[in-house]
Amino acid sequence: MKMREAAKLTNIGKLLERRGKELLGSSYKDPISSFSDFQEFSVSNLEFYWKIILEEMNISFSVSPECILRETPLHPGGQWLPGACFNPAENCLSLIGNRSLSDVVVITRDEGDGEAPVTKLALEELRSAVWRVAYAIDTLGLKKGSAIAIDMPMDVNSVVIYLAVVIAGYMVVSIADSFAPNEISTRLVISKAKAIFTQDFISRGGKKLPLYSKVIDAQSPIAIVIPNRSSTSSIKLRDGDISWHEFLERVDESKKFEYIGVELPAEAFTNILFSSGTTGEPKAIPWTTTTPLKAAADGWSHLNIGKGDVVAWPTNLGWMMGPFLIYCTLLNGATMALHNGSPLGSGFAKFVQDAKVTMLGVVPSIVRTWKSTNCTAGYDWSAICRFASTGEASGVDESLWLMGRAHYKPVIEICGGTEIGGGFIAGSLLQPQSLSAFSTAAMGCSLFIIGEDGSPRPSDVPGIGELALGPLLLGASSTLLNADHYGVYFKGMPVWNGKVLRRHGDVFERTSRGYYRAHGRADDTMNLGGVKVSSVEIEKVCNAVAETILETAAIGVPPPGGGPDKLVIAVVFKDSEGSKHNLNSLKFSFNSALQKKLNPLFKVSHIVALPSLPRTATNKVMRRVLRHQFSQIGSKL
């Protein structure tokens, strides 16, 4: 099929074919030629654009909004959907468009069950499961709006629990199942969680990884404990905790009454997620009722997700891509494909084949592993129509290799943030794509590259600098639980057309051909394998590894050929003979400590011994200076 004909069949293409002249006037030609004009329209006509998109996605409001956007000096990001009441989880389970109760909405398989058929869950079955858990949650006696944590792998049970918490009017606290007890505890304390759903252990590669014991060590509130499918006997629970079986028995299974979703105002919190800040404590970012609409809209517009699609994206509810996957599939009438196991081996590759995945989301580090192990060989991925890549900067070689697994279907790059609920920059099926680059600002979003003088560069001029966003973003955060939101995102930012721009923190380059490339973080956080972490968090761990260490500086260094940051640790020893220390042994100790205390995926690539760290006049470590120095030796890392 020719590109222009295929473009007309995309979600945006079909919209423009119907209403292009109405929206863009006589300048409208066709979906490809006029895509950039439509993106500009989505920014200059925010109310009209979002009204159209919410209609296209069949979003149902129990109380209609007074307007789409109300601009006010008190809210730099505006007030979105003021007066509206709705429940995003209830919308996920509704008969949107031409969806029926028999439509398959989840396809799943557990690791090790590769020879068994995939399990399919129809909308009717998902509804019943969510309603039952929602009724059971109500028996806990918690006040509506209370925070309820989920620390589990992303499987059918965790998706059901997530939707049940939201539909019942509570607030999900997202915690990654890889976190150590102190990281779990930090998130429980910040969010003031009143209960937590977890699992006894996780099965990965034939190993049993404890989870419930970590939750106990974190001194969690009451825990509801789901057994792993391979559990042979029930584990002893802490006093007051509840087994999954006992929890579900609180609701008579024969009573399959619909749970009427709690009507939530647009500004209500539905999910607390966390993103590393520069102070060492993770930023607690509330998703409101409107944030799922942003996630779903990105899926609709940039990833072209709709009825008939089967979407797989290895992730976890502890990261924004977990909730993003739920909403961008279910709110768009698509099917979610969940592989309960490691995505790094042939078991996942076979699941993609057997589930007939049409859109596969990845982070580049996963692709790099597939490429090095060739674990996808022999599996038929021909059902894939497109890939999506996010989480970290991708490399050209890996992207080209990935395309080759599915007859060179395109890779749509998308970059965003937890505090946005989706992307601010992306690719599009209606534009020529460049490997490992972005072709457009996200729909409804305006981008600015800040020049050396602190002012935004002209939008059509090549250059590199810190990226800023137009402040009016549907679904974006307007508050933080444990930090000054205005100070983090707006203070000190330039004003453009009377509006203060929103800080994001990434360095981006606009090329002479009009594409964008990511160049890592501008502040003191870094991206390691798709996980944002602050330098301070890493340094706290490294400083305590050996008595001989005076101080450390953790730096994320982008490799010359592209890809995720490499972690380099600058070490200052207490004695002047520090350079004689065995740095290889120290690197092993750093890795052991980081993987135990922060994240098992973190890995130190290089250690550099320095006599002292560069500092500002106010004694702040100048990590940007170190990043520049280490970038010069990037090829040796």
UniProtKB/TrEMBL annotation:
It holds the Pfam family AMP-binding. The keyword Iron-sulfur does not apply. SUPFAM superfamilies: Acetyl-CoA synthetase-like. Keywords: Phenylpropanoid metabolism. The keyword Cytoplasm does not apply. Pathway: Phytoalexin biosynthesis; 3,4',5-trihydroxystilbene biosynthesis; 3,4',5-trihydroxystilbene from trans-4-coumarate: step 1/2. One of its GO terms (biological process) is phenylpropanoid metabolic process. It comes from the Eukaryota. InterPro entries: AMP-bd_C_sf, AMP-binding_CS, AMP-dep_synth/lig_dom, ANL_N_sf. This is Acyl-activating enzyme 17, peroxisomal isoform X4. The lineage of its organism: Eukaryota, Viridiplantae, Streptophyta, Embryophyta, Tracheophyta.
